[in-house]
Design goal:
The protein is an alpha/beta fold and about 150 residues long. The protein has five helices and five strands. It has a five-stranded parallel sheet with strand order 3-2-1-4-5, with helices on both faces.
Length: about 150
């Protein structure tokens, strides 16, 4: 079984992500041997993205710049809770043909993380039925790991 203190915190620009970061910080700030990976996974560009003359590299650069701001905010919150800077890493990547939940689980498996933390996405039951829920997919498809869904 993986070490639960090796955590992926999947983040976006929502308040629910901030809540998840605050929650993890309140726990992780008191623990030794913690490793937190801030993860931002973004979808592939929309089909009409290139019509404006933009390239895939432009899209990736935009997403990475946005992620840098998210990571800076998240690191600040975590450090305010006492998490040491060397315990925090970050990663930004495109889902690349996978669902966001599958991309998160792929990283979890490859790098042996024991806990995945996500903010509960504020979607309606109809949207969840039609499009699925990242947290729901993580709970059902994750194996031998803890999944924390923070509201």
């Amino acid at each position: 079984m993986s070490d639960w203190k090796r955590m992926i915190i999947a983040i976006d620009d929502s308040q629910r992500s901030i809540n998840a970061i605050e929650y993890v910080g309140s726990i992780a700030g008191h623990l030794a041997d913690i490793h937190l990976c801030l993860l931002h996974i973004y979808p592939e560009p929309p089909p009409d993205y290139s019509r404006s003359g933009a390239t895939l590299d432009d899209y990736k650069s935009e997403q990475e710049e946005r992620a840098k701001m998210l990571f800076a905010q998240a690191k600040k919150i975590l450090q305010q809770h006492g998490v040491v800077p060397h315990a925090i890493s970050s990663r930004c990547q495109m889902a690349g043909g996978l669902s966001i939940s599958a991309a998160i689980l792929e990283l979890q498996t490859e790098e042996n993380y024991g806990t995945i933390v996500v903010g509960k996405r504020g979607i309606s039951k109809a949207e969840e039925f039609l499009f699925g829920s990242i947290s729901n997919a993580l709970i059902h498809n994750g194996r031998d790991i803890a999944v924390w869904v923070i509201g």
